[in-house]
Amino acid sequence: MSAGSILLWVILPYVAVAVFVVGLWWRYRTDQFGWTSSSTQIFESRILGWAGPAFHYGALAAIGGHVIGLMIPKSFTEAIGMSENTYRWFSAIAGAVAGAICVVGFVGLVYRRITNVRVRRHTSRTDLAVYFLLTVLILLGCYLTFGHNLLTKSPYDYRDTMSLWWRSLFILQPDVQAAEDANIWYQVHAIIAWAFWALFPFSRLVHAFSIPLQYLGRPYILYRRRYPVASGARRR
């Protein structure tokens, strides 16, 4: 096992997770006003109205698909009678829908940020770096889903390599050999993803963690008039 392999498949994942967690804590403690995304809707709302929801919902669906694909062992799908070909097409169709929605929304947001001067002024260098990594991740993910798995005669099953390595990280016994045996494009995709999550807490995307969950359990707000309404006005 080489030093480069240990760096990429052992040190990098855990360092990225540590930076992600500590970065979120630090950002929340020191930058309360910047924790939520500084709204630019006042500058432009037409594109934001459809691009924002499309990107957010598509990204959430894509992340959910990644988690399911990496966490569910191949033995489980085989045990319930799902063949590899069926699983591949099912994941490809679901990924295509989520990916298409995410790409459309992301392109709209990037176009808006580039063409609107006032919106562009609210973009930091860290935001630009995160947007670049996200662009590469989306394009590479689309290629792996369609060009490498659906349009080739010999599709690649990442669950025999990358999934094994991913799950081994949680038990603190990284399966470096499984990662090294993976297709090179899947390796690149994983490395870029760790870099993206390490920078995530320091970008405007951190607002994803500012969801006001307390509103779900908050009692209804009752509005009462300060002064009683006159009887004549009530009849009218």
Taken as a percent bin, the fraction of beta residues is under 5%
CATH H level, superfamily name: Transmembrane di-heme cytochromes, Chain C
Measured between the Cα atoms of the first and last residue, the distance is 85 Å
Number of domains: 1
SSE run: HHHHHHHHHHH
Tally of separate helices: 11
What's the total number of strands?
0
CATH architecture: Up-down Bundle
CATH class category label: Mainly Alpha
* Residues in helices, as a percent range: 55-70%
Q: Overview of this structure, please?
A:
With 236 residues, the chain is mostly helical. Helices cover 67% and strands 0% of the residues. The model has no long low-confidence stretch (mean pLDDT 80).
Features:
236 residues; mainly alpha; Fumarate Reductase Cytochrome B subunit; globular
Task: Lay out the secondary structure.
Elements: H1 3-30, H2 32-35, H3 46-71, H4 74-79, H5 84-115, H6 117-120, H7 125-147, H8 162-170, H9 176-180, H10 184-199, H11 231-235
Helix pairs in contact: 1-10, 3-5, 5-7, 7-10
